[in-house]
Every structure is written in C-alpha cells, then in structure tokens.
Write a structure and sequence with these properties.
Length: about 180
C-alpha cells in the first residue's frame, strides 16, 4: 500500500477534539492492500450506509481518480475520506464525488481543514474548478461548502437520486479569492 503524505492538519484543528486524537494527516492514496481497501469500504458504509462505495467502485477511483484519506499518521483508523474525479467536459474541473468525516468527529471543524488541504492539492495539480452535489437538507455540509469554503449553489435538481432526493449543484472557482486561508 502506498499513501503519499500531503499535509498534516494544523494543531488548532485537532486541539479541541474529544478523545485521544494525535496528529491527523491527509494522504493521497496511490495504491492499496486488500486490508486497506476493506477499511475504506467500511468507513464509507459507516458514514453513507448502503450508499457507500464498495471495492468495485473504489479500485477504479484509486487508480484513475484522486482518493484522499484523513487519519492519524501512525494508526490505521480512517477519520475522513474524499473521492474526486475529473470532469470529462472540462479538463480544468474536478467533481467531489464522496466527502465525509467520521460521525463521531463531525461538527468540530475537521471537515473544513480536510477540505482546505484537498483543494490546495488539486489546485497544485492544475485544476481551476470543483463541482459537487449536496442534499438540500444537509445543513452542516451546505454551511461548510457555501459559507466556510465559498462554493456557490448554481442550481437545484429535484429528485436527483430518486423521489425526494433533491440536490444542490455547487461549484467553486479555485483562485486568490478562495477562503482557504482561514
């Protein structure tokens, strides 16, 4: 398994967390073992339930997309996951396919710092825009994306994933105005 260390979260991002959390680091997944793949799948199932990605979806994402994990450097537990893919119609845009923080750590600011590191990395890779969809009822995620990071809601798709599964389509221009320096 190969994990490329991207950046550790700043001390202020973890100093107020409940429990014994050490240095949290963002890694870009370059390769995997079957054990690590299972941990990724289990994390997704714990956060997204049956909508979590299985091995058949994760392997191509690792090989052809960008999969980031947030975890303690010397431990196995994953506390955050992000999966991004290129946009076929716009070579300067990526789509944030999955994004999650472990339920026990949500609401404490980790999502903000994790996403900042990811956005900085994809900007370094040459991307200029990020798109995503979010459930219109997910107030916490909307606050993170829109208010803290600066994504804009560009449309609302009713029944995007079936009846009563409405989604906001959001986009972010990565430029000097981005709120990454908070």
């Amino acid at each position: 398994m190969q994990l490329e260390k991207i950046r550790s979260l700043p001390k202020k991002a973890i100093e107020n967390l409940e429990g014994d959390i050490g240095h949290l680091t963002v890694f870009l997944v370059q390769d995997y073992s079957n054990q690590f793949l299972r941990r990724l799948v289990d994390f997704g199932l714990n956060v997204f339930g049956e909508l979590g990605m299985d091995e058949w979806g994760l392997v191509p994402q690792i090989r052809h997309g960008n999969v980031f994990v947030l975890k303690e450097e010397d431990k196995k537990n994953i506390v955050g996951l992000a999966i991004l893919m290129r946009d076929w119609e716009d070579s300067e845009k990526v789509y944030l396919f999955d994004y999650a923080i472990a339920e026990s750590l949500q609401g404490q600011g980790l999502g903000f710092y994790f996403l900042k590191v990811i956005l900085k990395n994809i900007e370094e890779q040459g991307f200029k825009r990020v798109g995503l969809t979010v459930d219109t009822e997910n107030a916490g995620a909307i606050k993170l994306y829109k208010d803290k990071i600066g994504f804009e809601i560009i449309e609302m798709n009713k029944d995007e994933y079936g009846k009563s599964h409405d989604r906001y389509i959001m986009e972010l221009e990565i430029n000097n105005d981005i709120k990454l320096n908070k």
